[in-house]
Amino acid sequence: MSKTTTPKTMPSWTATSHGHPRQSLTLHPSHPIPSLPSYPTSTLLLIRITHVSLNPADLVTLKLLPAWLPFRRAPVPGLDFAGEIVAMGDAVPAEMGLEVGTRVCGAVGLREVARGRGTLAGFVVLEAGLVARVPEVKGWGGREAVGVMGIAGQTAAVMVRGVR
């Protein structure tokens, strides 16, 4: 397994109740970092998250899924992200062009969010097939924003259409 040294804990936002993010999210400075399994056929990635967004699906999740459900212990919400690979399973296909240090973007599934393993945290574990490399663009310091432009970017574009 390829990896760099990672801390034992991370900051994360957890949903302590359901409702609007201002009322339902609490910042925890020392949430446990997820770990990669050590089995030899792992195609999982441990990604240090650098950018996230709250999109309409996140807001619905916060309002509808109560934090007290048994499968949502210290639930971390969030779908979209951009970040950097810090560890990866040995079976990640070489043709994907992924390695430790590669900048990637993607989204976790609603199943992971429902289980409390979303992206409003310092790290996330995700299958390699669910990420895309962030393109190297010279002169554009905001390239990481590509990972959070999904629904949030589309919503912003619709809202500012016609605004001059």
TrEMBL record:
Family matches, as Gene3D superfamilies: Medium-chain alcohol dehydrogenases, catalytic domain
Protein name as annotated: Alcohol dehydrogenase-like N-terminal domain-containing protein
Pfam families xrefs: ADH_N
Domain Alcohol dehydrogenase-like N-terminal: from-to ranges: 45-135
Region described as Disordered: spans on this chain: 1-33
Polar residues bias locations: 1-17
Lineage of the species this protein comes from: Eukaryota, Fungi, Dikarya, Ascomycota, Pezizomycotina
SUPFAM superfamilies in alphabetical order: GroES-like (SSF50129)
